[in-house]
Design brief:
Elements: H1 2-37, E1 42-51, E2 57-67, E3 72-79, E4 82-89, E5 92-96, H2 113-126, E6 136-137, E7 141-143, E8 146-152, E9 160-166, E10 172-179, E11 184-196, E12 201-211, E13 220-232
Antiparallel strand pairs: 1-2, 1-13, 2-3, 3-4, 4-5, 6-8, 7-8, 8-9, 9-10, 10-11, 11-12, 12-13
Length: 240
C-alpha cells in the first residue's frame, strides 16, 4: 500500500510538470503568433544621425514601420556589421545586430527599448495618430516660453512616458521619457510638419532626441531622425 501511495504522488508530480510545460509552451506560441500577426500600417525611410560628445556623428539610412493602433514599431538598416533591426509592441521589445563601436557614447548600440518607445510616441502622437483622451493629465509644463499640457501614456509599464500637448496649437510637440532604474531622462522634439495626402495627416518629418539629465536648458542632442519618405504600407492580399 505504501509503495502504491508513493507511486501515485510521483505520477501526479510528473503530470503537473507536463501540464505546466505544455501551458508555458502554449503561452509562448500564442505570444509569437501575436507578434507575427502585427505588421506596419505606415512605412518610412529616414536618415539617422547618432551624435557623439566629441562633436562627430554616425550617419545611417534606416527603414521604419509603424502601427499606431497596435503600439508597434520596427526598424531595419544595413550597417558595416551587417543587418541591424528591432521591433517594439508596447512592452515587448526585441533586437538583433546591435553592437557598433563607432557609435561611441550613444546609444552604445543602434537601438534600445527606450529609444524605440520615445520614437514611437514622437512620430505617432506628433502626427495625431494616437487617441489621447484617455491619457491621464498632469501639470502644465513650460518649454522655451511655451506652455504644454502633460499627458501620461498607458505603456510601457517599466518607464514613465509623457507626451506634451501645446496649449496653443493643440498638437503633441514633445515627448519625455524617464527611466529611473537606468538614470535616464530623455526629451524628444517632433517638428517640421508636412501634410501627407495618403494618410490625410500632418506628419513630423524631423525628430530630435535629447539627454536632459542636467535639465532642459542644458539638453544634449543624441539622435536626429530625418524622414524622407512616408507612405501607407502595402498589405499583401490573402488568398485561399
Amino acid at each position: 500500500m505504501r509503495n502504491s501511495a508513493v507511486l501515485s504522488v510521483v505520477l501526479l508530480a510528473v503530470l503537473n510538470i507536463l501540464l505546466i510545460g505544455c501551458g508555458h509552451d502554449a503561452q509562448q506560441d500564442t505570444q509569437q503568433e501575436t507578434a507575427r500577426s502585427v505588421s506596419p500600417t505606415i512605412e518610412t525611410n529616414c536618415i539617422v544621425h547618432y551624435y557623439k560628445t566629441n562633436a562627430s556623428d554616425y550617419i545611417t539610412w534606416q527603414q521604419h514601420g509603424y502601427n499606431p493602433e497596435a503600439g508597434f514599431f520596427t526598424a531595419v538598416s544595413t550597417e558595416p556589421i551587417g543587418t541591424v533591426q528591432c521591433s517594439l509592441q508596447e512592452d515587448d521589445y526585441d533586437s538583433s545586430g546591435q553592437k557598433e563601436e563607432s557609435l561611441s557614447d550613444f546609444p552604445g548600440s543602434f537601438w534600445s527599448k527606450d529609444l524605440a518607445t520615445i520614437l514611437f510616441y514622437s512620430f505617432c502622437a506628433g502626427a495625431d495618430l494616437l487617441e489621447t483622451e484617455s491619457m491621464a493629465a498632469g501639470e502644465n509644463i513650460k518649454i522655451e516660453g511655451q506652455w504644454y499640457k502633460s499627458l501620461k501614456t498607458a505603456w510601457p509599464r517599466d518607464v514613465s512616458v509623457t507626451v506634451l500637448q501645446s496649449l496653443v496649437s493643440g498638437r503633441i510637440e514633445w515627448v519625455q521619457l524617464d527611466n529611473s532604474q537606468d538614470g535616464l531622462v530623455w526629451l524628444a522634439r517632433c517638428y517640421n510638419l508636412r501634410y501627407n495626402n495618403e494618410l490625410d495627416k500632418r506628419i513630423p518629418r524631423a525628430i530630435d532626441v535629447f539627454d536632459i539629465r542636467n535639465g532642459i536648458a542644458s539638453r544634449d542632442l543624441m539622435v536626429r531622425f530625418d524622414y524622407k519618405d512616408i507612405r501607407g504600407a502595402q498589405i499583401p492580399e490573402v488568398t485561399d
